[in-house]
Write a structure and sequence with these properties.
heterotrimer; A alpha/beta; B mainly alpha; C mainly alpha; A: alpha/beta; 6-stranded mixed β-sheet; 4-stranded antiparallel β-sheet; 10 strands; B: mainly alpha; ABC transporter involved in vitamin B12 uptake, BtuC; two-stranded antiparallel ribbon; 11 helices; about 75% helix; about 5% strand; globular
Chain lengths: ~250, ~290, ~300
Amino acid sequence: MSGDRQRLLAAEGLTKTFGGLRAVIDVSFTVAEGEILGLVGPNGSGKTTVLNLIAGALRTDAGRVRLAGRDITRLPPSTRTRLGIARTFQLVRPLRNLSAADNVLVARLYGRDRADFSAARSDSLRLLDLVGLRGKAQMLATRLTLTERKRLEIARALATQPIVLLLDEPLSGLNPTEVDTALSLLRTIRKVGITLVIVEHNVRAVRALCDRVVVLNSGRRVVEGTPGEALSRPEVIEVYLGTRSARAGFDA
Amino acid sequence: MTSIHVQNAVFGLLIGGLYGLGAVGLSLVFGVLTMLNVAHGELIMLGGYVSIWLFTLWRLDPFVSVLVAGPALFIVGAGLFWVLFRRLIHFTEEHKIKNSILIGFGLALVLQTLAILAWEADERAVTPSYAGEVLALGGVVVPLSRLAALVLAFVVLGGLHLFLTHTRQGTAIRATAEDEQGAALAGIPIGRVYLIAFGLGSALAGVAGALVSVSEAISPAIGLHWTLKALIVIVLGGMGNIFGTFVAGVFLGVVESMSGFLFGNAYREVVGLAIFLIVLSARPQGLFARS
Amino acid sequence: MTVPRLVPPALIACGVVVLGAVPLFTSSRSLLTWGFLILLYIALAQSWNLLGGFGGQVNLGHAAFFGLGALVTRMLWLKGVPLVLALLAGTAGASLAGLIVGAPSLRLHGPYFAIGTLAVAEILRITAGNVFPEVSTLPARALAGYHLAPRYYLALGAALLTMLAAWRFGRSRFGYGLAAVREDEAVAEASGVHAFRHKLLAFVVSSALAGLTGGVFGFYHVSFYPQFAFSPLWTFDALLITFLGGVGALWGPPLGAAFFLMLREALAFRLLEVHVLIFGILFIIIVLAFPGGLVEGWRTLARRGY
């Protein structure tokens, strides 16, 4: 059982090809229970594809995905959600013509440990409160601002009662104050025992938040380790060279 | 016995060329605008009536009427785009497709009804002096006017190919189909390209309709029939490939002709539709899918 | 529900009682026919709305299931099968067809579902015309005992059943899942909703109720060509009424059906074509300019305090 704790989520040799393009090649890593793992790498390195393979939005060409030892490679995304894998989308996608509360309610009704209506309703409002959207519960999702939608997306994912939460660039498009708020929200989420896998460009935030990082480049795993050691490796810096903001992050 | 099969194949080939031509316009519009005009068959029907009208009024040869039907339907198509479909261009792709289908569905009914009010519900045909002439090759008969329609369909498709590959306007249309945002960034006036593409797609329907009138009767009700033919051909032949569409049209024509012989004429349509459903199910992402 | 109720439950109960009592107080042919038609159109449109409105899947072959129900029910009934069994068989046949058609076609995205269902309906229409080319007329025995009241009650039953289904679709867990699928399948899946199963169930319920409605129609008509019940016009009427009233709204189809029939009555052109023309244009205008239909208009007025 302790082996399962160490390997709560395992990617084993994931490979995905789009047409002739090899987006992800033989990528393996494991995530321990309670950990925050960062998936980093330049644009087009295959981070989001890996996330989609784990969530089930894409089917792997080769390799396996395991959750607590169980092979979930062939399961549809909804079943994975029910088993405890939640995700957010890089470009936020709220259910546009439903209210903020109903966006969360659906996830609470269908996620892991399904609730009945009245419990689901009160849970949804509690989650909206957590992400600071309590006052906008009855507003249609289309009418929320971008940052509000990002927070709604996290509330929706949390409503599925996840064991593992996959976050695709949760900080992109936020200003520094909002980044701080988001980071403290993510720490709160971890405290309740949810394991996090985060795709993120903001190197500073990755250093501050992640226990471990997996660095991808051109679809392959380059390095894995603590943010301190992995991100200062020469091959990783080489991967990132040329983007000023990334270098600034390394220098810090 | 074999000559019956050859004869069937020849008839299939002759009608199939028109299936191809009828489909190209729909494919062009979908490729450029991501809108599926399910009233395309009604535009073909209107093209047919242009030919019949000109023949009845001035005894104008249907092959000459093509020169009128094309431009006339270009104007009709451009007008329909301007009044109706233009309002969808800012929708998301999914809503664009869904709403264009809904509008096309309503439009099909409107155009069909207008045709009934204008020309009454019964079938009409053109009867030029050379209508009955045939070319006899061994035991096989080839009606000359149908052969000429096939050749003309092929010429029109060749002209379309040259237009799309060798002119500024054509290049702009292809660029928009390929990558709309990129085209806009490159300074291509997207709104005008949409208008021209929709007009051109409708003009092709008009030409197809005029050529159909050479060999088949026209009635207000034929629209759905031709829309379905066009959809089948596009799904079979793939998107954006003019000659692939032509080949798929010919294939459908021959298959229908053969199955009409095998299962009885009443079911020739059903066989084509069944093939369509099988292809759709086998390739759920569809052959429309842009890679 | 977050949206204020348009009609309170007590009013609904009164409405049902009044509708049920109509044949007791009048035997006016025109009134009963009018009542029958409005109920039939409510059932037809609401059954389309279940999948098209609540589920967001545009089914252009709805007439096929209506026609199938009409064909099966009428044939069995004329062969002496008890009416209730014949109606059940028609409903079952239509739902089976829904399952067979839905399973492959609901995996299709974008325009493929719409054009796939259009093709299926055309196949069935042509086949029905080939197999049953003769007009089907009630035999003298059935004609002698022909009464409108039982037809009216059957239409009332079909309409109530579809309304009940739509009410469940709007309020249940399944309804929320289906709404999520309509908005964004990927997000629905990420929320734990099995999109395909939801769409398939909605399709089967939708075609079953279309089949039942068709069965009622087959029982009503004195004489018709079986192919007529497969005409794309039935699909169009279902779409038009639903969009008129409000697509994806519980009270959309009843409002739309009432408006549709009143308008048809008011126009009263001798030519059917003029009606079709006007309704076609009306449909396009609604899709383009008033996608919320009458229900949305009503809500807007209510919000402004009128």
